[in-house]
Write a sequence for this structure.
């Protein structure tokens, strides 16, 4: 499956790349780990790892 393109960090508004370390919170908001200070973090890892656990980050779901 192909990852969606142009996912932006909720804090710094830059594009999140597959190997960027990110957090996902309880309302499924993605942020770079170095940007995030939000309570309620559900998971951490690279964007590719997080996308593997949460399939709504793949483009095939929307076609």
């Amino acid at each position: 499956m192909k990852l969606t393109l142009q996912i932006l960090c909720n804090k710094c508004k830059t594009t999140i790349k597959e190997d960027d370390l990110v957090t996902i919170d309880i309302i499924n908001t993605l942020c770079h780990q170095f940007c995030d200070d939000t309570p309620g973090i559900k998971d951490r890892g690279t964007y590719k790892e997080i996308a593997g656990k949460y399939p709504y980050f793949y483009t095939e779901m929307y076609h």
Notes: The longest strand covers residues 41-46. The mean pLDDT is 83. The radius of gyration is 11 Å.
